[in-house]
Amino acid sequence: MDILTQNTLAGSGGAAPPAAAPKARTTLNSDFETFLKMLTAQMKNQDPLNPVESTEFASQLAAFSTVEQQVLTNDLLAGLGDQIGLLGMGQLQGWVGMNARAEMPVFFDGDAVPLTLRTREGADLARLVVRDAAGGIVAEETVPTAGGAYLWSGRDSAGRPLPGGTYAISVDSFQGAEVLGSDPVESQGRIVEARLSEGRTALVLEGGRIIAASEVIGLSAPAGS
Q1: pTM for this entry
Q2: Which domains does the chain carry?
Q3: pLDDT digit string (tens) for 160-196?
Q4: What 3-state class would DSSP assign to 209?
Q5: How, if at all, do strands 125-131 and 99-103 pair?
Q6: Angle 54-92/20-44 helices, nearest 10 degrees?
Q7: What share of the chain is helix, strand, coil (3-state, %, to 5)?
């Protein structure tokens, strides 16, 4: 579903009622009829010398009623979640065109890319590790152990420019020969679309990167706006 469709839904007074609820009610009605038939058969075929207590039948009815109410409650919550998701889409409309900052893959188009590095406390060496879409390491370089702002040139270990595309970049922190840990970098990307994906609001960034809206750390206006 594209942005225009989402906005049309939001502007028409809210989302359409979830289609799952009528189906759930039909299923529950069918199950309840089956339950009553089984309960009746149980009563007809019980041992007359050792009849089932009436309280047990009442307990079975109460248990089924509890399950029924729980299913209906779950359907209601799911419907509310869908409506809240559509409201979120309306709010995110203003994000399209802005730059989002998050821990995510880095899009390289030939120009140097500003990054924010996170290193581990006590590190005496930090290495930037660049991986391509297949997961292979295509570049490594030493970076400041203090972390912070860093301009990545987009070149491999031999100094040659890497092909344009999306790269996974992380920082490995060392203390002597010990690896303290590896952390993804923060980068920025222009938001080109907001969409609902599997019940969650997702953002599509330049280069085809997709992240959850909840992963955004910061927003900024594009240069020159």
Answers
A1: 0.58
A2: 3-94 (no CATH), 102-187 (2.60.40.4070)
A3: 999 999 999 999 999 999 999 999 999 999 999 888 7
A4: coil
A5: unpaired
A6: 170
A7: 35, 35, 30
